[in-house]
Amino acid sequence: MSTVPTDRVTFESDGETLVGTVYRPAQRGLRPGVVVTGSWTTVKEQMAATYARRMAEAGFVALAFDFTGFGESGGRPRQLESPARKIGDIHSAIGFLARHPLVDPGRIGALGICASSGYTAVNAADDSRVRSLALIAPWLHDAELVQEIYGGADEVRRKTELGLAALAAYESGAAERYVPAVSTTDPDAAMFGPFDYYLDEKRGAIPSWDNRFAVMSWPQWLTFDPHPAAARIKAPTVLVHSRDGAIPHGAERFHSALTGPKRLIWTSGTQFDFYDQDAKVDEAAGIAARHFAKTLA
After folding, report:
1. Range(s) of the domain holding residue 112
2. pTM of full prediction above 0.85
3. Cβ atoms of 110 and 74 closer than 8 Å
4. What's the structural domain count of the chain?
5. I need a surface site. Which of 67, 118, 169, 273 has the fewest CB within 10 A?
């Protein structure tokens, strides 16, 4: 793998200071820029860094950053999976990249992986600065898929009530309530099961990632639905997914609702293969890079 020069950067989002890494390409002159974001609960050093590096190798100025309340960035509550807050952060990141001295502000794309595909898409629907969009292994749920994934209406209601209670307690001065983000032993974890990517120190279980999930996240996460935004997206969009990945039906539905230029590319592999397995990352990142090269020319 080639050496990609990087810069630690900061920018503001809704009054909080966010920390990011800019990955610089070898090419000189103003270059297209790409904001890269990863799966829910994650930090910039995980899959976002992996894809940002690939984008820089392909000639783009790429930005990966920690969302508000995650990693090195400021803000509370910590580890709050708030779609609205994260969408606002992506909007701020686009603005930062548009002002970067190496970036042509008229050629900016956004690449979302897993859950942040939905956040990236919603921002793109109303942000004309985003000229191209790539969604990798996209997690795009709606109310029907939420019930399928989270154990039916009763379990969704239970999680929602737990989240509302945690939020009320926090607003009354209590500390944030947390559960593990991933666990093989705690059924209340946000992800309960043998999700090796997050449990293996050689993969996603890195020191900068906190394995915890703010319980007050549940109502916002469970009611988030990016699908209505699809019809408003004008930027050319490519989705790259696998039938063996997470909720492929969500990607199909979202793709069907897109009214602008679009492609849905089916490949192979599990959801976590897209995060850090070299062959799969090379394939998916290559598709995204070619898409950006064509649409941000």
Report:
1. 6-142+225-295
2. yes
3. no
4. 1
5. 169
